[in-house]
Design goal:
By secondary structure, the chain is α+β, with helices and mostly antiparallel strands. The protein has one domain (6-88). The protein is built from 4 helices and 3 strands, in the order E-H-H-E-E-H-H. It has helices spanning 13-22, 30-34, 55-68, 73-88; strands spanning 6-11, 37-39, 48-54. It has a 3-stranded antiparallel beta sheet. Helix 3 (55-68) packs antiparallel against helix 4 (73-88). It is globular, with a radius of gyration of 12 Å. The two termini are 13 Å apart.
Length: 89
Amino acid sequence: MAMPDQVTIVLTPEVHKCLLHHLPAKAAAYKPLANATFLSGNVNVGNTFVVECDLDEARSLLAAANRDCKMAVQAIRLAISEQQARRRL
């Protein structure tokens, strides 16, 4: 079970690469992004990266996505919303 402040973000390889390219290595959210788990897909589901981070790191990723990787915004917002819904339970 996920910890209350843990956010799980699922990204396509393209989105993951975009964020890694634009996020400075010194940024707090860089480490969880760089350490994301790669899940190999199949004909039904494409390859994905799963990023486990805290809420502050997720917000940092969202800010970077809003600036440089618009295609990542929806996935990050969804993950943050899910985390906040879990917190309310």
